Amino acid sequence: MGQVTVRKIDDEWVAAAKAEAARRGVSMNTVLREAIAKGLGLASGGSPPRKSNLDRFAGDSPDEFGDEWEASMEVFNEVDPDLWK
Prior knowledge:
mainly alpha
């Protein structure tokens, strides 16, 4: 891979890239590489899919909680008829 230096970047762009990197928990380099690829119409080639950082919450209930977890979730299986009027 090559290396490029870009000069005369607006401070607003730098601040936005830093904020996006902090929000996503990735490096500024990652944010800028993705932005350049997207701007050039190359975003679908080779870049990893964007993650929402909610992946750790996805999936089934943890096995370690067992029946207690399942019992506590029963309330979410009930439908309040007043909410559907």
